[in-house]
Design a protein that fits this description.
- Two copies of one chain form a homodimer.
- Chain A is an alpha+beta fold.
- Helices cover 44% and strands 19% of the residues of chain A.
- In chain A, the strands form three sheets. Chain A has a four-stranded antiparallel beta sheet with strand order 1-2-8-4.
- In chain A, strand 11 and strand 12 (221-223) form a beta hairpin.
- In chain A, helix 7 (188-195) packs across helix 8 (199-211).
- The longest helix of chain A has 27 residues, at 127-153.
- The termini of chain A are far apart.
- Residues 1-9 and 248-254 of chain A have low confidence and may be disordered.
- The interface between A and B is large, with 64 and 63 residues.
Chain lengths: 254, 254
DNA sequence: CGTGAACTTGACCACTGTCAACTTAAGTGG
DNA sequence: CCACTTAAGTTGACAGTGGTCAAGTTCACG
């Protein structure tokens, strides 16, 4: 289902990039044009991409959640990252040629379809945007490293607390939280696949967090009443999200 | 200790890049010049970088092994990747401004010190090399995803088998294996920190692998007598290493 | 109001961690 | 070249975090 989505309501991307880079007026306009590409919608649980796919275009999420995942041959699924509004789905396949993981919609999701050609043009014409896009990929890699630390060294309790804060922080950066609560479409099954735990144990652990008064999770809505204590309890340090900087911008990318 | 290492014995990088991109004569020369940058040596267990560092230059490994790692506040260490000859240490800090993880030498290691300025120049002057460098980063991210799958879903036996094959494959791509064996400086402790297992359990698991005739590991030398069976047993599929392609090269990077 | 997905809880169990002692290998200095 | 010393590897006994199985209950939604 192809529809036109001209209204650049898609603040998330511009908002995030603006926070970490100085975008010129021209950059923002080019971005808005990109976001205004033909869009497509997918329903929950639909795969936007499968491992091995050779992408025809690059997709940018305007609205909704998705996840990256990989599966073992026996069919066990590991979620390796969440894709939130303003995230690219397959920038890496753009360079590597094919997907090394799959992407599945979690909510109903709207993605802008960007042709490789228009991305090429954007990159050559707006080096600072190219720079910003690479930063996004690198931040992704940084989040994966933090997940490795979680899966390898943290307890179930810490893993889940940590993940909830990470998602909350990212949503906040995208302007999608309301006070200390936010929409939260993940099922306990999803949380299990992301944390390497069993659904049953996720449930038990969530109960713990609830009893401690650190997490309220009900009807697809998450509330973190005491972020500081939860961060403390789960060993969360925000550095790895590289949210603040405006650090180094170099070469063609400057 | 700064020494000059003019001889571009550093085949690994050129070899790997050549396998995935078409490098012009000029590209190779520029690369060789890069590799010929002043070098520095570090002894085993010495940290080449610490989380939080704001890198002064980019380091390229000519010789030796290192690992990327993160630690929890309680001091538990998770290795999130291995750095082999031909790998960059801190290409990501080049764009992100500061390290989100630490790097530690495993063997005695020699790294070329590349100034941001000369890297800037290389990138602008040789877009196809810039392209290739980004590919390396993306492949790194792909390996991290595979590690997440391992830590989250694979048994101890599979994790270790998988990791051994991954390292063997990467060394082979760098021209550093001899038949079915290679140098292997990791201790069981290192393997534990990389797989999220305890050293004791790594030991038990290696014994299993040895008894199955799939792994011989002695005196810092690894032999994989039956790679096919080991791959089968550990669910190893090489796709994620993106070793073969010469796929898409676009935009300025083309 | 019905039907399936998502969530809960309890009982049981096993993979892996911890602790501790010991053996072997590696590196150092006399 | 051999004591000495420390790191690395090995093994056994025991414990625990988290997995599995299975039976509910609640929720979402047509």
């Amino acid at each position: 289902m192809i529809v036109n989505a001209p209204e650049a309501l898609d603040m998330p991307l511009i908002r995030r990039l603006g926070a970490s880079c100085d975008l010129t007026q021209a950059d923002e306009e080019a971005l808005a044009r990109l976001i205004g590409s033909p869009a497509r919608e997918f329903s929950p649980r639909h795969d936007l991409a499968r491992e091995g796919d050779t992408g025809r275009h690059v997709r940018l999420v305007g609205d909704g959640w998705a996840c990256r995942y990989k599966s073992t041959l026996e069919g066990k699924r590991q979620i390796v990252g969440f894709i939130l509004p303003g995230d690219f789905c397959d920038l890496s396949a753009y360079l590597l040629g094919h997907m090394d993981h799959s992407i599945s919609a979690i909510t109903r999701i709207r993605v802008a379809l960007i042709t490789p050609e228009s991305l090429d043009a954007l990159i050559t014409g707006h080096p600072s945007l190219a720079n910003a896009f690479w930063r996004l990929e690198l931040i992704n890699a940084s989040m994966q490293r933090e997940w490795l630390l979680s899966l390898g060294q943290r307890t179930a309790y810490e893993r889940i607390g940590h993940l909830l804060i990470e998602l909350f922080s990212r949503l906040r950066a995208a302007g999608l939280v309301d006070g200390n609560s936010c929409a939260f479409p993940l099922t306990q099954n999803d949380l299990a696949d992301a944390t390497g735990l069993s659904p049953v144990h996720v449930n038990r652990t969530l109960r713990e967090l609830r009893l401690q008064g650190l997490v309220e999770l009900d009807r697809k809505r998450l509330r973190l009443p005491d972020l500081a204590t939860l961060a403390e309890a789960s060993g969360f340090l925000p550095n790895y999200l590289h949210a603040d900087p405006k650090e180094r911008h170099v070469g063609v990318y400057a």
